[in-house]
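Dear colleagues,

As part of the handover before I leave the project, I'm documenting each prediction I ran so the next person doesn't have to rerun anything. This entry is a single chain, and its sequence is reproduced below.
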Amino acid sequence: MYAMLVSNTVILAWTHLGVAPASLTLYIPGVLVALSLLRTLLWWRLRGRPLTISKARSNLRAMIWVGAALALGFTTWSFSLFPYGDAYLRSHIAFYMGITTIGCMFCLMHVRAAALAVGMCVLVPFTVFFVMSGQMTLIAIAINMVLVVSVLLIILLGNNRDFAALVQSRTAIATRQNETQRLSEENNRLANIDILTGIPNRRSFERMLGEHLAVAQARGQTIAVARIDLDHFRAVNEVYGQITGDLVLAEVARRINAIKRPTTVLTRLDGDNFALIMHEPCDEAAQLRCAEAVASVFRQSFDLPLGVVRVTASVGIAASTPGDTAETLFDHADYATWVAKRDQRGSAVLFNATHQQDLRRTRYMEHMLHTADLDDEIYILLQPQFDVAVGETTGFEVLARWRNPVLGEVSPVDFIPMAERTGQINRVTMAVLRKAIAVAAELPRSVRLSVNLSANDIGSTSAIEQIVALMGRSATPSRIDFEITETAVMRDLKQANQSLLALLGLGARIALDDFGTGHSSLTHVQKLPLHRIKIDRSFVAEVNDDPASRAIVKTMIDLCRNLGISCVFEGIETEDQLHTLVALGGSVMQGYLFGRPMQAALVTEYLKRERGLRHVEGRVAS
C-alpha cells in the first residue's frame, strides 16, 4: 500500500514540476513520502514478532488514526495543486485521488475501520470540492467516484464479514484443538498418575520398569525393585475411616519421595502397595540401605485430625539378573514381600537363591492347582468338637487336604494361602463343601459339620451364590456350619453381613474363628450374625501358666454367655487345660485330647466307640 502511495505521489509531483511552487512539488510531498517510508520501516521491523491481544488492539487503533491523518494530508496536498496547471493536470489530480483512494481501501480491506476512515477522509472533501467547482466534467468525476467507492465499500464490508467469520472459525478450531490437547494431556495424566498421591500409578510402573530394565541390560547394569506393602492398613480405614486412610497413603508417598535418590522412581501400585525402581548401585548393601530408608519413614507416627496413626510396612526387594524380564523381576520382589509379611512383618526381605527355589516350586504348585481335578484330589479330615456339658461329640470341623498325583501331599499351610492369592480358593471351598454334605448325610442328626470359608468366599457375591445353590440342592443344608475369620470380614463388613445372612437362610450357623487374634473383635461380634466364637489356641496354651490369659479366657466365656452364643476352645492337648477351662465355664472343646483329624470313613466308628464308653461309664456310675 505504501509503495503504491509513494509512487503515485512522486509521479503527481513530477508532472507539476515547474508549474506549481517548489514547496508543493518538492517539500510537502517529500515530507509525506518520508512519513510513508517511516511507517513502512516500522512495520518491517515488527514483522514476525508475537503480539499480545492488548498490543494488537493498540496497533489497530494506531493504524486507523495514522491512516486518517495521512489521508487528510495527501488530500489537502492534492487540492493545493489544483489551481496550477491546465485541464490535463487537473484530471491527473482527480485520477490520482480516485485511484490512490481505491487502492488504499483495497489494501486495508481486512481492517474495516481503517478502510472506512481513509475512504471518508478522501471521498467527502473530494466530492464537495469537485461539485463546488461548477465544472460538469469534474462533477461527473465526483459522482463517479462516489459510486465506485460505495460499491467498493459494499465489497469491502462483505469481504470483512467473511474474513471475520474465517478468523472466528479458525479461532474456534484452534480453541477446540487446544481443548482436545488439554483433554489428551489430562487423560494421559489420569491414566499414568495416581490421583491420591500424585506419583506414577501401576500402569506407569509397568511401562517404566520395562524401559529401565531394557536400558540397564543394554549397558550391562542392574536395577532393583522394592515392593512396599503396608501392614494391617485395613484396620486404619476401619477405625479412622477412608479419608484418614487416604491421608496416610498420601503422607507415605510424600515421605518416601523426600528421602529417595533422584534416580529412584516411586510409584503406587494399588491400595496400600507402593514400589520403587532403583538404579545402581543395587548390591545387597544398597538394598539394605533402601530397606532402612523405607523403615525410617514409618518410625514417626502420622498425626492426623482424627488421631495419631502408626503403621508399619513389609518390604520385598529384588535385584535384576541377566535374562530377567520386567515380569520376573517384579515377581521376585512380590514374592519377597509375601515372605516378609508371612515371617517378618514390618521388616524387609531381600530376594535370594533360596527364595528363587521356593518361588519356582510355588509357581509349579500354582499351575498344578489351577489344572487339578479338585473333586478327585481334595479330600477332607474331620476333627471332633466335644461338649463336656452333655458328654458327647456334637460336631466336627472339616479340614481340607490336597493329594496331587505329581506333588503328593501338599500341606494346607501352603496350598490354602496360594489358592486365595491365585483366585482358586472358591474351587477348593466347593470341593470341600460337596464332600462335607455327602458325609453329613451319613452322620447322626445331632452331629453338625463346620466348613471354613475364606475372605474371597464371603467377599464375593458370585461365590456365595454358588455355595447357596449347592447347599440348596442338599438334603441336609441345616447341618452345615460355616467358620469365618476376622481378617475375612474386615475387608468388607457390609458384604460379609449380606453373605452370612444368605447362609443363615439355609439354616446354617456361623462361627467366628481365631477369636482374639484379629482387630476390633468386639465390633465384629456385635455386628455379625454369629452363633458361636472359637477361642484361638494361643490363649488355651497359656491358660494354666499365665494369669492374664486365664483372665482373658474367663472374660470371653462371660461375653459369650451374656450374648447368648456358644464358645469353642481350640488346641486342647492336656487334661490340665481341660480342667481349667471347665472350671472357668467352658463347654465345647476341640483338640488332640479329644481326637486328631480323621478320615470320614472312621467317624462312624469313632462315634460308636464314644457311645460305648459313655454307656459303660453310666453302668459303672449306677
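The chain has 24 helices and 17 strands. The mean pLDDT is 85.

All the best with the project,
I.
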